[in-house]
Design brief:
By secondary structure, this protein is an all-alpha fold. It has 3 helices and no strands.
């Protein structure tokens, strides 16, 4: 598998499982990308980086945002 971005340099702070997720999402051939394979979106959800993520609460819009930016003006 060849990535979309050649020579992609990852930040040293990124965990290996996140690097793997990014790599698999950026595979050059769309037919080989994570999420497009036989398992579809379930493959993405099952990736180790998402371990412990509550997809059910996400689908029901019950998760609280980890960060809420301060908006000073409506069009900001």
């Amino acid at each position: 598998m060849q990535g979309i971005v050649r020579g992609l340099i990852y930040c040293a702070a990124l965990r290996q499982d996140l690097r793997d997720l990014i790599y698999r999402l950026l595979v050059h051939n769309p037919a080989q990308r994570l999420g497009v394979l036989k398992g579809g979106a379930a493959d993405v959800k099952a990736h180790p980086w998402f371990h412990g993520f509550d997809w059910e609460s996400f689908a029901q819009k019950k998760l609280k945002a980890p960060y809420m930016p301060v908006v000073r003006r409506p069009r900001e």
